[in-house]
Design brief:
The protein contains 14 helices and 23 strands. It is an alpha+beta fold and 514 residues long. The strands form five sheets. It has an eight-stranded antiparallel beta barrel. It has an eight-stranded antiparallel β-sheet with strand order 3-2-15-14-13-12-11-10, with helices on both faces. 26% of the residues lie in helices and 25% in strands.
Length: 514
């Protein structure tokens, strides 16, 4: 299965612009440090160069040093066509950087003694159920956000695309086949964050969005941050949605039908915000739970969120050590500094937030091109320059890899001489899977079509090889493509269909409904 769910201004920086940074005094402090000013100038030039090289229509960048917002800048425009200049107030989707908000909510409940990180999930949510009874019993609250569930990476993620609710996605965990032992390996997930938010709701008496607004956004003055129910709003200073197709940037229409799928993953990736608002969030983490004399979270629980829990990537030759914490990634690339970071990709926007706790410096970047990790590499460049190191051309190396890949399909190769399918009417019917429920295969306009999920997403089935078909969304064929196989039983009848890469979701098998 191949799917994308996952993930300009010319730089003429005068001294006046560098030291005022286009902000009112109440919003940012002038850069007094000549070394920092030089770092910011060099970083902005590199960021703008690569924004253009990657075809990113627009992005916003902000830097916090100590307890001061020292830099906020918009580069490019909100839309590939007809947009306005991006600035610090432009609203973007922040994707999986939303996860840290959920972890912070849990930390607040821990501060109130409503729960402990080491409590079993079933003590707070008795309906919680994994496929393995022992895992169900031993699953701790801190395991929900440490990415070591034992499930396959991104298990069940397509449920949101097909219109399943948060409740249905949480219930589907009972049918997810583990691929490793519990807590033994890193594998990125979204659904467990929905469980964490549900537990917070039980103890706080508030919905997820209400809690965020009252307990985090309002105290921090994050007035342009929201958790919408119907997608990214249309407004004067709201970004448009873009993705890469065949190596080029494409802007999606305002009426793109899947602009709101990410919001079903609210606690895992459904927040919208601006870079100015996100500087307040960055200050909270840099300062271990306190901003402007207001303590929102205890220092001990902030430290716990930033403490390594799951080894994610190690390269001893280069000195790389990356470990997942509670919705953050702890990374050391040499002995010079440590970075705490997380990115987010909604397929149509990208976000990156990173800080160096030992230096009390960090940055946040939001862009309107999904599926491209340019911001992640910009963050590495910034940290190197800030620490007086001569950085690699991280973005250039990454861009070269993208061009070399050339947008190659992740689909399995099709035989040179594929066999024709059986008469198409033999495949028609209803098929059931415990996770994705009933799908219906029908004849339409001389071909096969499959309807899937509560959202009734229509997939056109094109013959691939004998009983294999390529499924593409009828409305947006680029977004989701997957190969499925119909399987014959002993009597020569189609008994089931199997979707490749969904093997861990009850085998990816959809049994024919008799």
């Amino acid at each position: 299965m191949h799917w994308r769910l996952r993930n300009g201004l010319t730089v003429l920086l005068s001294l006046l612009v560098l030291f005022t940074l286009c902000l009112s005094p109440a919003q940012a402090a002038p850069v007094q440090d000549a070394s920092l000013a030089k770092t910011l100038a060099r970083f902005e030039a590199y960021a703008e160069k690569n924004r253009q090289a990657f075809g990113v229509p627009g992005m916003a960048v902000a830097v916090v040093a100590g307890d001061k917002v020292v830099y906020v800048k918009g580069l490019g425009t909100t839309a590939l066509e007809g947009g306005r200049p991006v600035d610090g107030d432009t609203i973007f989707q922040i994707g999986s950087t939303s996860k840290a908000f959920t972890a912070t909510m849990v930390a607040m409940m821990a501060d109130q003694k409503k729960l402990s990180w080491d409590d079993r999930v079933i003590e707070h949510l008795p309906s919680f159920l994994m496929k393995d009874p022992w895992v169900t019993r031993e699953f701790l609250i801190k395991d929900l956000m440490a990415q070591h569930t034992g499930l396959a990476p991104h298990a069940g993620e397509l449920e949101a695309f097909f219109g399943f609710t948060r409740e249905q996605m949480v219930a589907s965990l009972a049918h997810m086949k583990p691929v490793t032992s519990f807590r033994s390996a890193f594998a990125y997930q979204n659904i467990p964050f929905l469980v964490a938010a549900k537990i917070v709701g039980r103890h706080s008496g508030m919905g997820y969005g209400e809690f965020l607004k009252k307990k985090i956004w309002q105290p921090l003055g994050m007035s342009r941050t929201s958790l919408p129910e119907s997608g990214l709003a249309v407004g004067d200073n709201v970004t448009r949605l873009h993705r890469r197709e065949n190596g080029k940037t494409v802007m999606l229409a305002q009426e793109w039908p899947y602009k709101d799928w990410i919001y079903e993953f609210g606690p895992a990736g459904g927040i919208n915000s601006s870079v100015k608002d996100m500087t307040q969030w960055l200050r909270l983490h840099i300062n271990r739970g306190e901003v402007d004399g207001k303590r929102l979270v205890s220092a001990a629980n902030m430290d716990f969120m930033h403490t390594p829990a799951t080894p994610a990537k190690t390269d001893l030759a280069s000195g790389l050590l990356a470990q997942y914490c509670q919705a953050w990634i702890y990374e050391r690339r040499d002995s010079t500094f440590t970075t705490i970071w997380h990115n987010g990709d909604t397929t149509v926007n990208h976000a990156m937030i990173a800080f160096m706790p030992g230096k009390k410096v960090g940055l946040v970047m939001l862009s309107n091109l999904g599926g491209v990790d340019m911001l992640d590499n910009l963050a590495r460049y910034f940290c190197d320059v800030y620490n007086g190191l001569e950085p690699k051309d991280y973005c250039g190396d990454y861009l070269a890899k993208l061009k070399k890949a050339g947008g190659e399909s992740e689909l399995p190769p099709r035989p040179k001489n594929p066999s024709p399918p059986l008469p198409l009417e033999r495949y028609v019917g209803s098929y059931h899977n415990p996770v994705y429920k009933v799908v219906n295969v029908t004849l339409k306009n001389g071909g096969l079509e499959m309807t899937m999920g509560p959202g009734k997403v229509r997939m056109k089935l094109t013959p691939w090889d004998r009983d294999q078909f390529l499924a593409k969304d009828v409305v947006d064929p680029v977004l989701v493509q997957m190969v499925l196989s119909f399987e014959l039983g002993p009597e020569g009848k189609i008994d089931c269909l199997r979707v490749m890469d969904l093997e861990n979701e009850d085998g990816g098998v959809f049994t024919r409904v008799k």
